[in-house]
Amino acid sequence: MNLDFDPAVAEFRAEVAAWLAAHVPAEPLPSVDTAEGNAAHRAFERELADARLAVVSWPAEYGGRDASLLEWLVFEEEYHAAGGPVRVGQNGLFVLAPTLLAHGTAEQKARILPPMASADEVWAQAWSEPGAGSDLAALRCRAARTDGGWLLSGQKTWSSRAVYADRAFGLFRSDPAAERHRGLTYVMFDLRAPGVTVRPIPQLDGEAGFAEIFLDEVYVPDRDVIGNVGDGWRIAMSSAGHERGLSLRSPGRFTAAAARLAELWRRSGAQAASPLAERVADAWIGARAYQLYGYGIASQAAVTPSAARRHPPDVFSNAGGAGAGGLGWPAGAGGGAQASLGKVFWSELDLAIHETALDLLGPRAELRDGADSSWLDGYLFALAGPIYAGTNEIQRSVIAERVLGMPR
């Protein structure tokens, strides 16, 4: 692994850092799960897009910079270190977009990606159903054939950011007679279309980060089907790989959090020989290990020049076959079942970082106002990490069977 970054990467890092220093709000934006916060986050995303920094790894024709995997990792490091706002369009940017780039048509990419990059269209996930959470193949929402398209019916739940989103993507059963993993079709749909009802799911803080989606014969044209009809499971596993891997949870997110934790420890006056000091060190080492893992993947990708410029910058998207999502990443770079390794690692690291911070703060951790109040919110969100993107219990079974070769 080569850790000597070339001058172009260093120049890119400096450009990103300078822009962020001038544009990241001095005070945190309102919660993205409120109407005011959603609008504020969209406005910031448009600033990013105007600077061509919203989607640096995308092709230039869709608003990106054709950045390499290493450059994308660098951008993420600088963004999180600068305290950049939550990416309001992350479901689209980091899950749907990689799927479209790998499996979508030219028309879909040209139509969907530019407004996604500028946050003119924000996307929600529509995966889980009341009877199909970890067992996604048990889904019952239907897609019935009609003239020129499909009629969607059923209920989705725990749909991230659906309350303020514009569109959604998910799996629907287009052939009820087919086996569980077959007869599924990957569909995009408008959340404001006739027949769609979005019902917020309030959280303990009163905000609605999730929603239920009810569909009553919602018309979707054929052009909003991704891939072939009936091939939705394979394509959905590509999306799941991005959700579990580098794309949605980059190493920069955790190196920034670990640096904040180290600073909190220094301010706390805790003894260097205390168990808390060991936990701070473990968290920092874990974040650094994940960072180096990402650099290692970037180095492997750079061995094959054509692969090093592929989009999106994610090695965890392979649903079968060599490379990531069929994009040509080098063999062994990590894909398919190896996404589960990354997901278990970063979700547990995130929780460990925030638990340690709360223990350092002691009773002050419960205060909602003040310089350290973000740790409590971060902890509550981290609690969901072992659940979303596929529960860690399921991921460990995948690792055991498909990575380690253990019997079922």
Written description of the protein model:
By secondary structure, the protein is an alpha+beta fold. It folds into three domains: 7-96, Butyryl-Coa Dehydrogenase, subunit A, domain 1; 123-230, Butyryl-CoA Dehydrogenase, subunit A, domain 2 (Beta Barrel), CATH 2.40.110.10; 238-403, Butyryl-CoA Dehydrogenase, subunit A, domain 3. It has twelve helices and eight strands. It has helices at residues 7-23, 35-50, 69-81, 90-103, 106-117, 232-244, 251-268, 275-303, 305-308, 338-361, 374-382, 392-403, and strands spanning 123-126, 142-146, 149-156, 167-173, 184-190, 196-201, 210-221, 225-226. The strands form two sheets. The chain has a four-stranded mixed β-sheet with strand order 1-4-5-8. Strands 2-3-7-6 form a four-stranded antiparallel β-sheet, with no helix packed on it. Helix 1 (7-23) packs parallel to helix 3 (69-81), helix 8 (275-303) packs antiparallel against helix 10 (338-361) and helix 10 runs antiparallel to helix 11. The longest helix has 29 residues, at 275-303. The chain is globular. The two termini are 35 Å apart. 44% of the residues are buried. Mean pLDDT is 86; it is low at 305-334.
